[in-house]
Amino acid sequence: MQELDSVVIRFSGDSGDGMQLTGTQFSNTSALMGNDIATFPDFPAEIRAPAGTVAGVSGFQVHIGASEINTPGDEPQVLVAMNPAALKANLQSVKKGGTVILNMDAFTENNAQKAGYDGDPLQIENLDDYLVIKANITTQTTEALKDLDLDNKSKARCKNFYALGMTYFMFNRELDPTINWINQKFGKKPILVEANTTALKAGRNFAETLEAIPNTFVVPKAKIEKGTYRTINGNTGTAWGFIQAAQVAGLDLFLGSYPITPASDILHELSKHKNFGVKTFQAEDEIAGICTAIGASYAGALALTTSSGPGIALKGEAMGLAMIYELPLVIVNVQRGGPSTGLPTKTEQSDLLQCMYGRNGESPMIVVAASRPADCFEMAYEASRLALEHMTPVVLLTDGYIANGAEPWKLPDLSKEMNKINVKKPTNDAANWLAYQRDENQVRTWAIPGMEGFEHRLGGLEKALNTGNVSYDPNNHETMCHIREEKVQKAANNIPLQEIEGEDSGDLLVVSWGGTYGATHMAVKELQKEGHKVSLMHLKYINPMPRNVEDIFKNFKKVIVAELNLGQMRQILNGKYNLGAKGYNKVQGLPFKISELVEAFKQELG
Amino acid sequence: MQELDSVVIRFSGDSGDGMQLTGTQFSNTSALMGNDIATFPDFPAEIRAPAGTVAGVSGFQVHIGASEINTPGDEPQVLVAMNPAALKANLQSVKKGGTVILNMDAFTENNAQKAGYDGDPLQIENLDDYLVIKANITTQTTEALKDLDLDNKSKARCKNFYALGMTYFMFNRELDPTINWINQKFGKKPILVEANTTALKAGRNFAETLEAIPNTFVVPKAKIEKGTYRTINGNTGTAWGFIQAAQVAGLDLFLGSYPITPASDILHELSKHKNFGVKTFQAEDEIAGICTAIGASYAGALALTTSSGPGIALKGEAMGLAMIYELPLVIVNVQRGGPSTGLPTKTEQSDLLQCMYGRNGESPMIVVAASRPADCFEMAYEASRLALEHMTPVVLLTDGYIANGAEPWKLPDLSKEMNKINVKKPTNDAANWLAYQRDENQVRTWAIPGMEGFEHRLGGLEKALNTGNVSYDPNNHETMCHIREEKVQKAANNIPLQEIEGEDSGDLLVVSWGGTYGATHMAVKELQKEGHKVSLMHLKYINPMPRNVEDIFKNFKKVIVAELNLGQMRQILNGKYNLGAKGYNKVQGLPFKISELVEAFKQELG
Amino acid sequence: MTENPTYKKKDFVSDQEVRWCPGCGDYAILSAVQLAMTKIGKKKEDIVFVSGIGCSSRFPYYMNTYGLHTIHGRAPAFASGIKSTNPNLSVWIITGDGDGLSIGGNHLIHVLRRNIDCNIILFNNEIYGLTKGQYSPTSKQGLVTKSTPYGSLDRAFTPAKLAIGAGATFFARTMDTDPKHMQETALAAEQHKGTSLIEAYQNCVIFNDAVHDLYTNRKTRDDHCVFIEHGQPLIFGKDKNKGIKLTGSKLEVVTIGENGVTEADLLVHDQTDERLAFMLAGMKGPEFPVAVGVLYKVDDVHYDEQICAQVEEVKAKKGAGDMTKLLHSGDTWEI
Amino acid sequence: MTENPTYKKKDFVSDQEVRWCPGCGDYAILSAVQLAMTKIGKKKEDIVFVSGIGCSSRFPYYMNTYGLHTIHGRAPAFASGIKSTNPNLSVWIITGDGDGLSIGGNHLIHVLRRNIDCNIILFNNEIYGLTKGQYSPTSKQGLVTKSTPYGSLDRAFTPAKLAIGAGATFFARTMDTDPKHMQETALAAEQHKGTSLIEAYQNCVIFNDAVHDLYTNRKTRDDHCVFIEHGQPLIFGKDKNKGIKLTGSKLEVVTIGENGVTEADLLVHDQTDERLAFMLAGMKGPEFPVAVGVLYKVDDVHYDEQICAQVEEVKAKKGAGDMTKLLHSGDTWEI
Ligand SMILES: Cc1ncc(C[n+]2csc(CCOP(=O)(O)OP(=O)(O)O)c2C)c(N)n1
Ligand SMILES: Cc1ncc(C[n+]2csc(CCOP(=O)(O)OP(=O)(O)O)c2C)c(N)n1
Ligand code: SF4
Ligand code: SF4
Ligand SMILES: [Mg+2]
Ligand SMILES: [Mg+2]
């Protein structure tokens, strides 16, 4: 039994093979056993692409560790390949020397062909560098279940638990968490409880007797902060963060949304929690999604709209309206691979400029971004807080990677750890109230229908200072444009100062933002260990930026901006601070690997 | 009779007073008499705001000169005010020492009140600095027409021609062009021909006998380039430029559009010219406008869509699709005052960033901008040429000011002065044709339905190199993103090098773009005359920029970017070239005044 | 419920100057609606007017209630959000034939489908007024406008047919020249639970003058409109001697007293009959009178009520939400 | 006209692998349409398939014709541009209940209004397939889906009613389990000049399995569908002994031979009768059979033809455009 600091495993098979479930079980069990984890579910683009094809491969990568884990890992050390297509899609990314577990039952000629192999995959692929474990997973599963009163198809469907059992043996995982889960999930169908449990145990037992597994491993508990933990993915965290904000603010929560990958799960999650006073409105399109939300905001709810790139493109006009109304609203963009329909199930950070500027006229908006799955809760809360306290729409950027990826989350103590939210209700002095009278932060107050004496009309035409009546006065227009810009900039006083990881000065400042934190953090840490004078500035507050950002830049010789696009944050920073920063950019629909970042930053260090 | 180099006159009255017509007549007559001119129609925001109110004032400013005229002038020297509201709205902008012609019939207590005067306007306004000419224009008009068989209301409606007649005397304008126009316009109703002609003459005669006009003026012919001239406004020029491009390319022209101020006139103008093979499709909304145009482009037409800011916001998703399809398409944005519904009838340049970035994903697009009314023809042509030759959507930016403003236009010799247009039809080798095979400029070819053997499908999902089939391959995606960006940048080889006005080096480089050319040109010229080392770089090709732009910057100590927004071009230039340029910005819904620019640039010069 | 104050019309007049062209039909509608507001039994602060963009859509500025002037075509969506958040509000949507049927057609049919309890007044002047006169989806084919100098090519929508086809539960027709009928129709709409769509024939004096003249002019109105009422036979004409008869799926104009036709032969209006409503919706001049009044009214579930009920149901079932519990739900572990 | 080549089904099969879930109803529709293409008398290069986004909207990739996979809901607009540019093309729109009726509802009703000569196949599976199972505007109220764990609240559209209300000139219903009927319906649609809307009941095995089972299952189909034909009485049932009777505006299911009912008492289908079509559109189970086949077909002007005709008319009137003349029109002067 060998002790490992961390290990990366990838479960891969056909869309129908249940790999997402298998990966999730492995992750959750490991988390419960005290490991730090990070996961990367990698869906095929189509619903059930033809069985057996590479396009139909569904993967789930999990990284577990005895120390801090921040990414799902660059290269899997173990690949479970349930069919030839899974082998074909993944082998090149497996670490040399790693283990490959194959379900030989699926390695038929027909399947090899579907996967695009022109012959026997085991001959065609060079497997010499790997430890290959061949198992007839399907037949062994059916065999293990032969006494059960189930049809063969249903029996074969348990093969993922059999495979899971094998990995549980290999990495000394406890079976109980998964058995508990099976009981809960299939409680009403005892036959399925028995089938899956039996398959899991059979897989484990088979592995134990298998000579091919020369070694088993143990990944000790991670030394992480004390507390109560759960695993969470970004979309769930986002949904919960909004519920919490509504609770703290004492408001109902309203979501107006139209389904789109990879944002739909926020809608799904919120729909489950109507007992929190949550209303979800599945609108006829994205425009109606945001417009119902603006209506709800006018009527006094904490209002949201959620979407991804193409849907956000449709919301631009209404976002501008919310901005000139000066009503609180959160717009979530779970970014995916663009342009156009692009790569819907893949990740990217290429909607930054769209969110900053994708509206007519001078239309400034607060923009924030979550850094990792477990940060989505906080940033959804922060987005809500800023929207309510500054009476403005706020864009929250996440991405497909952190939205679907899961990691352990130390549960916050809600009574202590959350900022207060100061809702801008007017005082009772209706007679002297003006809709666009502002406080020192240029924030107006929020009077809602039902409040006697505060009847007022909002519109998208330019407004007169204070009264908000329609005004075509040239100077007033200029004043209002400046005020709206200033209002957004003043939110800088209401956000944390920018932290940097590492020294305050040095040779290279790495700038990253949003969902890439795990990778940039690890890469910079590695370089720092090697003695390089590198620090990391990871931005979560994008507009306005924290007040100290400009000063931080001054103390570094070079700046490099790493992002999953062709240089959008770089364009903003260079334009604003004249940095002449270089970029490290990737647009492959995939998250950064730590190794590629290390290399790129080293190169920039010279 | 005094000779003037130039003069600025503003006709102003109630929306129903016919001031747009009066101003246009004065302009056209002056142009026909050999002056250079520039006009600025200034509409009220509402259709017929309540008669007599300031909101209902409709103005038309015209600048005529014996030398080059590029703007409608900073301050009118003559104001014709048909009612108290017109006086109220305009007096503060009239040059001290100027002439104010008042229609005393309209200066009733009631009208004064409607205009917001709390008493007699002539007492309240300090008119000491002006030469005030009071005339009972309405009653004198009806009097002059007393013998005509017309009701009094119709007679009174001729008062604008009476006022026009007065100004014609004052500036020694010929009556014939206007009388000809009246004949054409009212030919079918002789009574109206007579009424208006009589009013015009009566006004002229009245002015001649009027002691109050101490002096008349003459503005000699301008020394302008030889040729045939006509007046043109920007929207008409834009429409005609597209027709010309379609003719040269040998294609039908298709416009898919939805009406919106101030872009609708392009739709109206194109609708008139169906005999050029122009099809105009008034769609159900802006999205359908662009989508019908993309469909038309796929089917082989030169396809356009026209709109203004809020409508462009709706087109973002489809623009991204056209971009990934790589089909030719021109998107015209006649910019107006934003954000949101904003100031629909006013001008601004605040949609630049929206046009550059208002789409999800990495979605580069060619962007060009017209510099003045008479330039719209050429830039519409250029936009079409670039779209067709580079197989890409192209955004053409104009604005409310140049769209509605008119100036003389030296008619081009169509057989010589226009660039050829090289349509990218594939050769006949269907068997070896691939939809996304490219030439050295990364441009693919355009096969259209009806062509045998070229059947192919386009989609918004990422495409495989060359074939265009759907591809989820990570590296292919990155390659394609780079290729699409490169394709746009390569268009830099197909546009003119950037010219600068003035020396190649100096203390200050003024950068402007789009519809502000008249003002920045005049301001820089003035400073150059004063001996300052200032040059002007006026950009019409925005993405890509001409290849020599970066080098030009290097030779100036300072750069200032003047634009009608809060600094959008500045953000782009600073981000791209790390200039640290300052900006001179105005967001009042109004064009620049030369004087304010001169002052701003002087300040920057130190 | 506390007693509602008694309102006068002027209580609903805002401090903003009304800005439409002199003679525009919008004035009469505004006035009728302000009067109707005094009678609907709602407090001023519980009324919201929501509009899109267009001449007609300036309406909310002139109502001394809560209001939103939104963006072009989207008013039904804003209203849906408002009403779903606070079903106690009386929500009124003001839209035009361009705003509601061109760019906003989808939101209109979807609000009808969801049957959100609000009232829509569609100002149908068969033209785009605010943008200075382009044809609209209700313009008659062949109309010469700024954008169709050679005549428009599109077939026109009949709003009533579209609405009923989309599943409307209330549709009524009225006109700017009959303010009393307008007022009554507004009241009927407010009383209906679910989406009430009122088509108001409105005259644009500037860009499409007299387009509804046959139906709205007092001289010709009685001969070209049949004012329908639930349970009453369809009788019209200056002399109240014309009527509508139904045979199979065919409608027919008949004269009472001619060819043996008596009142008993006439079609009796049943406002709850969707198919009948669809037939009446399609009647138009000059052969037929247009049907004015409530063509269709039927009760059905309305979304805004349901969305609130569902929240209460789930609360009752699962208990009010407890965030700490939610965080700790499922698998957690201690470090 | 040159002779069209004779095609086999495989001529319309593209080189792209078909990617739907095993058992998805889309396969049958694809196959039926490929067969129909061999019979419409159009050259392959003159056919264009245009779709939005959804499982069904992958369709064009699988057709070896010209094609556009566009953006969500907008296919009718793209098709309108294509057809207005080149009316010689046979243009087919493929859409889903989400694509065509939710986000794309407006474009759908407007293409119907303009009556552009194209054919629309609406794959109605009453669910959003591609985004993994949210309810759609045709989902039955109360449906439990990913986005409605406590049941959906919206009332459903009946596509046929919506279409007829919008002014459709052709509406037909067919189903994935009857490929022959599907094929015939496609042919009838292509023959119709104007917009032809086909609603195809389609089964989504994964997210809404068997939703149309009553109508599409071979066992129950005959008792729950009435296959209508122009000029024929409405007879259905396994034993061909049931029929539909019309009294006033009320439809009724009757049994031939019972209570003295004979075939002569039955309603005879008249596909040109809009009001009748609207009635038939609304029939649904279990009380009524659904009407399958061509519910409505009427001839009217179609926009694409008109837009081209107008160009020709103006050319004839004003002569082909001459740019130099245009530049010199109106006032010009020499310097
Ligand atoms: C997104 C957008 N597109 C277009 C416009 C321009 N626009 C304003 S109102 C209008 C049509 C108005 O017609 P209608 O709804 O019939 O109202 P009416 O003015 O006739 O009352 C249009 C096209 C706009 N303001 N916003
Ligand atoms: C602008 C935009 N919004 C949302 C989506 C996500 N989306 C894709 S298909 C779809 C619905 C598909 O349902 P339907 O049209 O019924 O087609 P089906 O998959 O059932 O065949 C949605 C919501 C998208 N691709 N683009
Ligand atoms: S343009 Fe027409 S609709 Fe608009 S205010 Fe004037 S008359 Fe009324
Ligand atoms: S999800 Fe449903 S509709 Fe989509 S391919 Fe699968 S079975 Fe067909
Ligand atoms: Mg209208
Ligand atoms: Mg569907």
Describe the structure.
The complex is a heterotetramer, with two copies of chain A (606 residues) and two copies of chain C (335 residues). With 606 residues, chain A is an alpha/beta fold. Chain A has 22 helices and 22 strands. In chain A, helix 5 packs across helix 9, helix 10 packs across helix 11 and helix 12 packs parallel to helix 13. Chain A is globular. The model of chain A has no long low-confidence stretch (mean pLDDT 95). In chain C, helix 1 packs across helix 6, helix 2 runs parallel beside helix 10 and helix 5 runs antiparallel to helix 9. Chains in contact: A-B, A-C, A-D, B-C, B-D, C-D. At the A-B interface, helix 13, helix 14, helix 18 and helix 21 of A face helix 13, helix 14, helix 18 and helix 21 of B.
Rg of chain C (C-alpha, Å): 22 Å
Q: What multimeric state do the chains show? A: heterotetramer
Strand residue percentage of chain A: 15-25%
Distance between the termini of chain C: 54 Å
Gross morphology of chain A is globular
Helix-strand category of chain C: alpha/beta
Q: What is the 3D form of chain C?
A: globular
The beta-strand count of chain C equals 12
Q: How much helix, percentage-wise, in residues of chain C?
A: 25-40%
Which sequence of strands runs across the widest sheet of chain A? 11-10-12-13-15-14-20
Which two chains touch over the largest interface?
A: A-B, 67 and 66 residues
Overall number of strands of chain A: 22
Rg of chain A is 26 Å
How many helices of chain A in DSSP terms?
A: 22
Question: Number of helix segments of chain C?
Answer: 11
Largest sheet of chain A: 7 strands, mixed
| Main sheet properties of chain C | 8 strands, mixed
Q: Which regions of chain A have little confidence, pLDDT < 50, spanning 5+ residues?
A: none
Strand order of the largest sheet of chain C: 2-1-3-4-6-5-11-7
Indicate the mean pLDDT of chain C. Answer: 96
Structural class of chain A: alpha/beta
